[in-house]
Amino acid sequence: MEVTAGSTKRNIRLVLADDHQLFREGVKRILNMENDLEVVGECGDGIQVIELCNTLNPDIVLMDINMPIENGVVATGKLKEIFPDIKVIILSIHDDESYVFETLRKGASGYLLKDMEAESLINAIRSVVAGHAYIHPKVTGKLINQLRRMTYLDEVGVAGAGIVSKEAGVKYIHSESSPLTRREAEVLRLMAEGKSNKMIGEFLFISEKTVKNHVSSILQKMEVDDRTQAVIVAIKNGWVTL
């Protein structure tokens, strides 16, 4: 964790939270070239970013999702709960709309991709400070597909906190004890229905590769070795009913 010494207060103060120091250095160099932007601190995990915000009270936190100890999704929720006036912008390699929905739900004001141009990054920061939300254009189309899918699921029986499939009769029940995100819960429910990764991808309008990533995350979070064990554990915990 680093704090920039002798910094002079300017219009927009930023903290960078990313576990790749080389990437942080590049972003810091770009932002500090602007007269109205100043990186006042940086860190490599979600715990340290809370400590920095408590010390520095920045205007913006530019945060990665994949970080050790505590990831950007969890850190965003905690940060917004403690410091509601500090705005969070996610800067990630992930363009999966489930990450976008989850971070926005936690209170993030923007979602950017790391392959964007420097000028676009700077404009996005200024836009968020002005009170607007900013989502990377590459993600917008996927968000539209997600909303269409949610509309379809509502029509076939999704209601409340549970995610229901009338066709197969499998229900995922939301529980505070579940470590899964909403998208992972959907994938788990479809796994319980016996659907393959390809079939899950087609149903959720996402790529098979993205499904594989979700399945890997589910197995890791549930501390099991395969899909069958994951479904069994979910049933035992009451997360899935058949």
Task: Give a brief outline of the structure.
The chain has 242 residues and is α/β, with parallel strands linked by helices. It has 10 helices and 10 strands.
Describe the structure in your own words.
The protein has 242 residues and is of the alpha/beta class. Helix content is 50%, strand content 15%. It is built from 10 helices and 10 strands. It has helices spanning 21-32, 46-56, 72-82, 97-106, 118-129, 137-156, 182-192, 197-204, 208-222, 227-236; strands spanning 2-3, 12-17, 37-43, 60-63, 87-92, 110-113, 134-135, 163-164, 171-172, 240-241. A 7-stranded mixed sheet has the order 1-3-2-4-5-6-7, sandwiched between helices. The chain has a 3-stranded antiparallel sheet with strand order 8-9-10. Strand 5 (87-92), helix 4 (97-106) and strand 6 form a beta-alpha-beta unit. Helix 4 (97-106) packs across helix 6 and helix 8 crosses helix 9. The chain is elongated and about 55 Å long. The relative contact order is 0.09.
* Distance between the amino and carboxyl termini: 48 Å
- Order of strands, main sheet, comes to 1-3-2-4-5-6-7
- Give the overall pLDDT as a whole number: 81
Query: Biggest sheet: strands, sense, closure?
Result: 7 strands, mixed
Strand tally: 10
SS content category = alpha/beta
Poorly predicted spans:
152-170
The rough form would be described as: elongated
Roughly how many Å is the radius of gyration?
20 Å
Order of helices and strands, N to C?
Answer: EEHEHEHEHEHEHEEHHHHE
How much strand? 15-25%
Oligomer: single chain
What is the tally of helical segments? Answer: 10
Helix content: 40-55%
